Amino acid sequence: MVIKVRFFAMLKTKVGKEEANLTVPENISFDKLRDMLKKEFPALAEFIDGKSIMISVNQEFADKNTIIKDGDEVALLPPFSGG
Amino acid sequence: MDLVRIQKQDFSVSEEIELVKAASKSIGGVVAFLGTARDISKGEEIVKLDFEHYPGMAEKKLKEIRDAALKNFNIIEMGIVHRTGAIDIGENIVLIIAAAQHRNDAFMACEWAITELKRITPIWKRETTKKGDVWVEEHP
Question: Which residues of B touch A79 (CB under 8 A)?
Fold first, then answer.
């Protein structure tokens, strides 16, 4: 199945694009998805490992219990600095 | 106009307050937090700021903050406006208005809302200094 991955702020700069489509196995777990994202976007591996970024799925914060489905929008969110 | 918005253009603090006050004649206290663009950060002179947000999710989080404030504090209405895009020094960035029958509830709700905004809203600030641009990673 295919998911859309979106990048924001400093992560967008690191990856060099705003979004990418990624083919992932059906029923992929959240932890496995994190591993795939690190492999697919090595420039972001240290940020994903450092847990300084959050991941959202369909615009809601995700965690290890989140189920990933075909067509989902996954976003990598660096630390927020609004306000 | 929507009480919770993300927009590029500047806003009028007094017009936003009137919008919130229009919710009820029982309002007796209004507290507003206005965040503005300062010219210094960690000792570096800031030339300008740029804000990026996650369209859709950022608005949703701001609405959740308003809903939670209305539920958990004894307030009557809350408005939240945040700007995006390029913002010059001295310009408005964010406005949170809490209106209650009594001031203490409005103070508490307003303080909670700006802290929560910084914690859960996908908005990012880029500072331009004379040395270049940097994305700000912390939210003090």
Answer: 137-139
Residues of B in contact with A82 (CB under 8 A): 51, 53, 58, 82, 94, 117-118, 121-125, 139
Q: Which tokens hold the place of A19?
A: 């979004």
Flag whether residue B56 sits within 8 Å of chain A, measured between CB atoms.
yes
pLDDT, tens digit, 9 for 90 and up, residues A40-51:
999 999 999 887
Tell me the per-residue pLDDT of B26-50, one tens digit each, with 9 for 90 and over: 999 999 999 999 999 888 899 999 9
Q: How far apart are CA B7 and CA B126, in angstroms?
A: 17
CATH at B47:
3.90.1170.40
Range of the domain at B22: 4-135
User: Do A79 and B123 count as a contact with CB atoms less than 8 A apart?
Assistant: no
Q: Given this model, what pLDDT does residue B138 score? A: 60
Nearest CB neighbour to B139, from listed A13, A52, A79: A79
- Average pLDDT score over chain A: 94
Domain boundaries of chain A, sorted by first residue: 2-77
Q: Decide if A27 touches B, using CB distance below 8 A.
A: no
Number of domains in chain B: 1
What are B53-98's pLDDT values in tens digits? 999 999 999 999 999 999 999 999 999 999 999 999 999 999 999 9
Query: Domain A2-77, what fold?
Result: Ubiquitin-like (UB roll) (3.10.20)
3-state secondary structure of B121: coil
**Rounded Cα distance, B30 and B19, in Å:** 12
Q: Is B93 on the interface with A (CB under 8 A)?
A: yes
